[in-house]
Specification:
Order of helices and strands: HHH
CATH class: Mainly Alpha
CATH topology: Methane Monooxygenase Hydroxylase, Chain G, domain 1
Low-confidence stretches: none
Radius of gyration: 20 Å
Number of strands: 0
Structural class: mainly alpha
């Protein structure tokens, strides 16, 4: 009975971490950087899954969240660069 209880607890932890990783990817996609930071801290506070299949899934979800964050930050940086270029062009036209 104790073994079954520990397996259920482990499954619940894994499910919770997977939900955190999904939320992290979504926050990064929305460029909600304060929420992304909170979720990153929450992910780090949880144990890494022990079962090999859970570990593979964990790493896949983590990689997807990181890739989403990189793409989102790149998009934001490109948008900022375009806005700065447009502002410089407008200032040059007026001045």
């Amino acid at each position: 009975m104790d073994s079954r209880h520990s397996k259920q607890a482990a499954a619940k932890e894994v499910s919770h971490v997977f939900a955190l990783l999904a939320d992290l990817a979504e926050a990064a996609r929305r460029a909600d950087w304060p929420r992304t930071q909170e979720l990153t801290a929450a992910v780090l506070e949880n144990p890494v899954p022990e079962r090999p299949e859970d570990l593979v899934a964990y790493l896949d979800k983590l990689q997807r969240a990181l890739t989403t964050a990189r793409i989102s930050r790149t998009f934001a940086a490109n948008s900022l660069a375009r806005l700065n270029a447009a502002a410089s062009f407008s200032a040059a036209q007026m001045g």
